[in-house]
Amino acid sequence: MTHAGSAADQAGTEEQRPSAATPPSQLVTEASHAAALDAADSLGDFRQRFVVRDPRLVYLDGNSLGRLPRATVERLREVVDDEWGGQLVRGWDHWLDAPLRVADGLAPLIGAGPGEVVVADSTTVNFYKLAWAALGARTGRRAIVTDRDNFPTNRYVLEGLAEQRSAEIRWLDGDPIDGPQPADVAALLDANVALVTFSLVNYRSAALADLAAITALAHDAGALVLWDLSHAAGAVAVDLEGGDADLAVGCTYKYLNGGPGAPAFLYVRRALQAGLRNPIQGWFAQRDQFAMGHGFRAVGGIGAWLTGTPGILALAAVDEGAALTAEAGMDAVRAKSVALTEYAIALHDAWLAPLGFTLGTPREAARRGSHVAVRHRDARRLCARLIARGVIPDFREPDSIRLGLSPLTTSFGDVRTGIAALRELAAE
Amino acid sequence: MTHAGSAADQAGTEEQRPSAATPPSQLVTEASHAAALDAADSLGDFRQRFVVRDPRLVYLDGNSLGRLPRATVERLREVVDDEWGGQLVRGWDHWLDAPLRVADGLAPLIGAGPGEVVVADSTTVNFYKLAWAALGARTGRRAIVTDRDNFPTNRYVLEGLAEQRSAEIRWLDGDPIDGPQPADVAALLDANVALVTFSLVNYRSAALADLAAITALAHDAGALVLWDLSHAAGAVAVDLEGGDADLAVGCTYKYLNGGPGAPAFLYVRRALQAGLRNPIQGWFAQRDQFAMGHGFRAVGGIGAWLTGTPGILALAAVDEGAALTAEAGMDAVRAKSVALTEYAIALHDAWLAPLGFTLGTPREAARRGSHVAVRHRDARRLCARLIARGVIPDFREPDSIRLGLSPLTTSFGDVRTGIAALRELAAE
């Protein structure tokens, strides 16, 4: 147990949280503590805005697939029945700009401005487009910096690009819990680096990288930086503009509750848009698209990153999901996320650490996303048994159970019930 | 009027169609003729399987966006409410193989076998993947053969690839009505050609290319052939295996009725699968995907052409759309398509040709897809006025009105009502 010594401190911190409903003497493990936290939760009512088919289910996997907003059910009915069914092809009069319109609604959630984001294609395809473009914009440079713990699809895309473009990947072997640290990144940078790319929040440990510091280091070395926000968007108050970020991608089906396989977003800082090329030159990026003329001429601005015909049903679902997070406000969402993860860590320390678990997530809230990984040599089997009992986290190799705490839908009561069940199973 | 001389022949052909309901003396222009054709239509009942919100609307644009199947409304409700809303992340237990499962249902409609097709990404992204792979598989060869009248997104993607890979595009300037002819293709082939690519059905004229003949010529020259089936799938009885086709892509939102922006299909002949590389190496193509291990190792077979997380809602809609066409049977679908286009051409000849229209579509049924283009110097304005009157075709530069005749949903009465309205507007 790496961090067992701080368990009491952490519980102490919890008890000191200002809340009229939480008397100072109350133990963090008591049910009344969770109830008090839920009662004081300013976002507690948002749970009712989502479909909850089985109220007994403890869903701790919103970091993998977010819940279904009630508004999305009605919006999809409209898009399917009224728009596709009724307007038919005339729907394209307003569908055509959906990838940019939905993106402009999502942009403030990641600290981007209007005209800096599109929603289209998958995260993988968007990551490929931007990584390709970054290599193309730094001719003469042949190195890519990333970490061995980056999300698999990013690593695989980079391996393919490196082979195709005779580039070299410099792998950062960082701490698996703490994620990429600026000093370690700096050690890999030189004048041959074209692209630096990390996940802002690590998919396994939830380590939250220092976007501004790493971006500044990469810029000092003359490289472009591409952030994957998949495990951050909708849970962490990302500030792309404030951090001077160049490029970003991310998925919308986790904390943004956009639905299974919903299209991803892609960000290009406005100042860079004129200088970068999309390798997949499709008709949705063509100036005067329906002239269907000869010779590709990209539209100005972020629209140049569109490719083919966007999925209209899925875009509507992303629109509704992002709107709910916008309504809640990213500051409140982040505060709730921190409170949820602090509470989960306190319960880990009190209940799980004595049973052989270790924490697989940074303890410092500022360095943490919205899930908590608890590690155990028997994690795979325990996770399967939890799911059979109606508590749904997920397992990640080699030994992590991820407890995904989704600010708009996870209650403090869910966290306690879920971790109590895990404790019970592990103690058997 | 290029083909006005054959108007009487064409009408004669119509009158000679064997049908007990059609007395030999009946004129093709009479309402009773359309009624008789509808009464004899073995696929007529399929129209009731689709949502028809406004029965007065004459929808002649199923070649752009197919109608909404009733079964799709119910299937989407299940996928949204029961699967996303109820199963939540557990839905991935059966969603994971949806891109291959839905593809195997669609494969027979295009003459492909199981394990030769995926449904994922857009047509544009799939076209990029396959064109890239073909260039990579024919190292040393640096030419691409296509036609200037190919669908815009294909031309734009090829222009980008040619620039990126220092390749040359050899443009076939074919007849705008008849499409690419084998002899003209042959004249562009030599040992430097890596890739030959055409649309099987031209988006403007509906010219149906000779897949087997062009494929054989390309193979003789050592090139790979990539067919875009977007305007053919679900209307023409495509035989990819019989024609020895190498590669194909196509969209599902036209005659396959998959919905606006539905994911596209991608075909790689089984024998070629081991030798071609997908340039976008994403996690959905990774062997043992959820081990999330180091080093990309593609799965065997067609799954190697997946990239990122597939859109689950849209895949369900494609599944339902393709199932309806499979139920009808491609032979019956093609026969209906030919009958619809023959009838539209006969009405063009009788009603529109005298008003200054010319036919923009091949007269030989075997060389024609499922839409009919009628050309007029005032086509743009006439098309807009038609739409205002509740007849929905579409306009394509510079002078074509496309009448899309969708075998499962267009009636012969629709064809007559639509062309009668166009005649009336043009005569004003």
Using brief descriptors, characterize the structure shown:
homodimer; 428 residues; alpha/beta; Aspartate Aminotransferase, domain 1; Aspartate Aminotransferase, domain 2; 2 domains; seven-stranded mixed β-sheet; four-stranded antiparallel β-sheet
Task: Write the SSE topology.
Two copies of one chain form a homodimer.
Chain A: H1 7-15, H2 31-39, E1 58-59, H3 70-87, H4 92-95, H5 98-106, E2 117-119, H6 123-137, E3 143-147, H7 152-164, E4 168-172, H8 182-186, E5 193-199, H9 211-220, E6 224-228, E7 247-250, E8 265-268, H10 312-328, H11 330-352, E9 358-359, E10 371-375, H12 379-388, E11 391-392, E12 394-396, E13 400-404, H13 412-427
Parallel strand pairs in A: 1-11, 3-4, 3-5, 5-6, 6-7
Antiparallel strand pairs in A: 2-8, 7-8, 9-10, 10-13, 12-13
Helix pairs in contact in A: 1-11, 2-13, 3-10, 5-10, 6-7, 11-13, 12-13
Molecular structure report:
The structure is a homodimer of 428-residue chains. Chain A is α/β, with parallel strands linked by helices. The first copy, chain A, folds into two domains: 4-40 and 329-427, Aspartate Aminotransferase, domain 1, CATH 3.90.1150; 72-327, Type I PLP-dependent aspartate aminotransferase-like (Major domain) (Aspartate Aminotransferase, domain 2), CATH 3.40.640. Chain A has 13 helices and 13 strands. Chain A has helices at 7-15, 31-39, 70-87, 92-95, 98-106, 123-137, 152-164, 182-186, 211-220, 312-328, 330-352, 379-388, 412-427, and strands at residues 58-59, 117-119, 143-147, 168-172, 193-199, 224-228, 247-250, 265-268, 358-359, 371-375, 391-392, 394-396, 400-404. In chain A, the strands form three sheets. The first copy, chain A, has a seven-stranded mixed beta sheet, sandwiched between helices. The longest helix of chain A is centred in the C-terminal third of the chain and has 23 residues, at 330-352. The two termini of chain A are 20 Å apart. Residues 1-25 of chain A have low confidence and may be disordered. At the A-B interface, helix 3, helix 6, helix 7 and helix 10 of A face helix 3, helix 6, helix 7 and helix 10 of B.
